[in-house]
Structure to design on (152 residues):
């Protein structure tokens, strides 16, 4: 009788493993967490340093986990080490958060760096997200072959 149960259980376990591999395509997705999702590095129109133009340059983060993540003390920086340090903010489970270059009133979905100059280079750059401890969470790079934005 034990042998029959084992024969039935093995195909079921193999099917579950196959299904899990299909639904979660990478270890990062399986583990969940905060990732750089989308970067708009070349704001539309002329680069006139208006607040509207500065805020059209942004980095969007995505929380792929099933629970909220505190970003307090985390750092978003470019290749030239322009840094934005996150205040006491959380990103909800499955939610997105944009970090805009210019000034504005922070909301649950938008944070503002309060800068008066552009951060992200149009020709090439790298956005790096690190935890408060300094450990790297994610990076996203682009070059001139990307028109004005890139998905990471």
């Amino acid at each position: 009788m034990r042998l029959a149960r084992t024969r039935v259980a093995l195909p079921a376990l193999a099917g579950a493993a196959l299904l899990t591999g299909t639904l979660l395509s990478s270890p990062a997705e399986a583990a969940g967490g905060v990732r750089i999702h989308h970067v708009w590095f070349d704001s539309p129109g002329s680069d006139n340093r208006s607040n509207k133009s500065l805020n059209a340059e942004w980095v969007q983060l995505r929380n792929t986990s099933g629970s909220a993540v505190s970003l307090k003390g985390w750092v978003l920086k470019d290749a030239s080490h322009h840094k934005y340090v996150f205040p006491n903010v959380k990103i909800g489970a499955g939610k997105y958060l944009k970090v805009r270059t210019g000034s504005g009133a922070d909301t649950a979905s938008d944070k503002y760096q309060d800068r008066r100059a552009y951060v992200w280079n149009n020709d090439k750059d790298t956005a790096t997200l690190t935890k408060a401890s300094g450990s790297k969470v994610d990076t996203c790079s682009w070059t001139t072959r990307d028109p004005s934005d890139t998905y990471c």
Q: What stands out?
A: The CA atoms of residues 67 and 128 lie 22 Å apart.
